[in-house]
């Protein structure tokens, strides 16, 4: 099968030398094999889930497989667990959560129990919000059993093509995943799972991303998504952590805005870490000194760390550290 056109594919399926791990970070690869299609002219991502594309369109009839609007991909009937159905067009004007999950997945079942309560609280607060379940169950019976626990909508299990298109649209690499959309169908956050677990009262709904996060048990999974700047502080006092967040937030916002203008994901996530058992475990795992404040960049996929141990952390020091990292001027230490 041959195609003409300006499209390139990156397939990650075997060991990649450390020098090439930046591709993993750039495209946020979390498992293999992964196939990502790029526009060879601009370098922009066309499709993050090329393996599904090949499976669903082996003849290349939909080439070049560019992203389609959410409204177009979701178009069609949606189900309630009582058997009633409604058209997806009736959801216009609502925030939406697209929930990729399955009954066979224990973390999915745990998240579903929390999400049911979050859904109820958001609806009771008068917010226009709906969740659409996209099943990864292995049988229709499992789907029906799992869906019976959910008060929201679902793509019919028998509509495998639409479920696959939604997976392709958002480049789903693992479950559970909750994508939160604005009323126009644009992504607010891909980290709905973390937001729901961190905001039990849903006070920050619809969970617009924060430039700097306070490291916690529920969001620590994001450390595996790519390089992360982590500023360790020496106090459990909220005031200390807040001051640290305010210190690095302007740099984080600047980096995020720069890459958003290029329609690319920021190459770094930004965290502040206080003193708790989880932070102690992270220090132990990465073999970091006990000093604080301690400015680091941790790249778990490359098993590399970059450490700046100085008595005082200033915005100028943080910005220089970040710029040197992005320019590949820093020498990594092994984790």
The total count of helices amounts to 10
Helix content: 25-40%
* Weakly predicted, low-confidence segments: 1-5
Which secondary-structure class do the elements indicate? alpha/beta
Estimate the global geometry from the Cα principal axes.
Answer: globular
For the largest beta sheet, what order do the strands appear in spatially? 11-13-12-14-15-16
Q: What do the pLDDT scores average to?
A: 89
Query: Between the first and last Cα atoms, what is the distance in angstroms?
Result: 43 Å
H/E element sequence: EHEEHHEEEHEHEHEEHEEHEHEEHE
User: Which radius of gyration do the C-alpha atoms yield?
Assistant: 21 Å
Number of strands: 16
Strand content: 15-25%
Give the biggest beta sheet.
6 strands, mixed
InterPro entries: NRX_PDI_b, Thioredoxin-like_fold, Thioredoxin-like_sf, Thioredoxin_domain, TryX_NRX_thioredoxin_dom
Pfam families: Thioredoxin_6, Thioredoxin_8
Domain Thioredoxin: 67-214
Family: Belongs to the nucleoredoxin family.
